[in-house]
Design goal:
Elements lengths: L24 E5 L10 H14 L7 E4 L12 H12 L5 E5 L4 H14 L3 E5 L3 H6 L8 H16 L7 E8 H6 L1 H4 L16 E8 L3 H5 L5 H15 L3 E8 L18 H15 L16 E5 L15 H8 L6
Parallel strand pairs: 1-8, 2-3, 3-4, 4-5, 5-6, 6-7, 7-8
Helix pairs in contact: 3-5, 10-11
Length: 329
């Protein structure tokens, strides 16, 4: 998905306890992708609503650019939101995705982060696989993608803002699971086996339309996390859940194709299972032994571009449970 608000989580985490705990940072993505208006004011309103709903503390700010890295002062939505964020919510971390390399703008963003003391996570081509294998965007060509991350690592490493910056790679679970065999775009094209320059590799995981219908259930932890496990095994890189969500199968609204979960009880139980697995992967099975906890999990908090609700808001019990996992303000 193309997200518009999300948290950036920094740092390494050790192996986890038996249940979802504080070492995995659980947050939400308040997004303007699904609403009728995708503008500055709508963004701020949805962000404030989600922040209040989940306890009043930071939930993070996620900005997406289809081109260059945004900078505060740019006359566009991401640029305006950068300026708003540091003025209104200086406690927040910011995640920025973009698709056009510009080393000078990266340095300018680092200068700003260092001056304002803002934590920033930087992603080049979020959900990169289909951008290359399906859309053939030359900016997402594996050689170009890999070289961009190498160059960004050198720039970040040499900058005084380094302690504030996370260089993040982001991959698409749905593409890896359903499309790689026929269309290509395997994750190994985009992650270096030795000394990958990214600090972590996150995965966007969704139960999209058709999948619950065919399976009669929501996704298992192994289905969602097996590729993150493989990346960790082959590269040693920390992992995270960049986005997650599903539509409750209660027969109501877009993408609710069936009615086998009318009270969202199975959905709430699934939320508990998937969060526990993210913070303690060894509980999934022996193939996950030794795998560290996810650095963070970010739950999509609204409808997607197809008006399919992917949020926890579909089940008040799920919201209450997830709120208990989030850091106190």
């Amino acid at each position: 998905m193309v997200a518009t608000v999300v948290v950036a989580s920094l740092g390494m985490v050790p192996a986890q306890a038996e249940a979802a705990g504080p070492d995995t940072r659980f947050t939400v993505i308040a997004t303007t992708q699904g609403p009728a208006k995708d503008d500055f004011d709508t963004f701020r309103q949805l962000y404030e609503k989600q922040r209040k709903q989940y306890g009043g503390g930071p939930i993070g700010i996620r900005l997406f650019s289809p081109g260059l890295l945004p900078l505060p002062g740019d006359n566009n939505m991401p640029g305006k939101l950068l300026a708003w964020a540091v003025a209104r919510h200086p406690d927040e971390a910011i995640t920025v995705s973009h698709k056009t390399r510009d080393d000078a703008r990266l340095r300018a963003l680092l200068d700003w982060a260092n001056t304002k003391h803002v934590r920033v996570s930087i992603i080049y081509f979020h959900e990169v696989q289909d951008n290359w294998a399906k859309h053939h965007d030359a900016r997402a060509k594996p050689e170009v993608y890999l070289e961009t991350y190498r160059a960004y690592r050198k720039i970040i490493q040499a900058h005084p803002a380094r302690p504030l910056i996370t260089l993040e790679k982001n991959l698409m679970w749905f593409w890896q699971h359903y499309s790689v065999a026929k269309q290509g775009g395997d994750w190994r094209l985009f992650v270096e086996k030795k000394n990958d320059p990214a600090d972590l590799v996150s995965w966007d995981t969704y139960v999209f339309p058709g999948m619950p219908t065919a399976q009669g259930r929501y996704a298992t932890p192994d289905e969602f996390f097996r590729y993150a496990r493989d990346v960790w095994r082959e590269t040693g890189k920390p992992w995270a859940v960049g986005e997650i969500g599903t539509t409750v199968q209660d027969g109501t609204g877009p993408c609710a194709e069936k009615n086998w979960d009318p009270k969202a009880e199975k959905f709430t139980a699934w939320v508990k299972v998937i969060t526990a697995a993210a913070s303690n992967p060894s509980t999934i099975g022996p193939e996950y032994r030794g795998m560290p906890a996810a650095l963070f999990m970010k739950w999509w908090a609204g409808p997607d571009a197809n008006a399919c609700d992917q949020s926890l808001d579909q089940a008040p019990a799920a919201v209450a449970f997830y709120r208990g996992l989030m850091p106190l303000p």
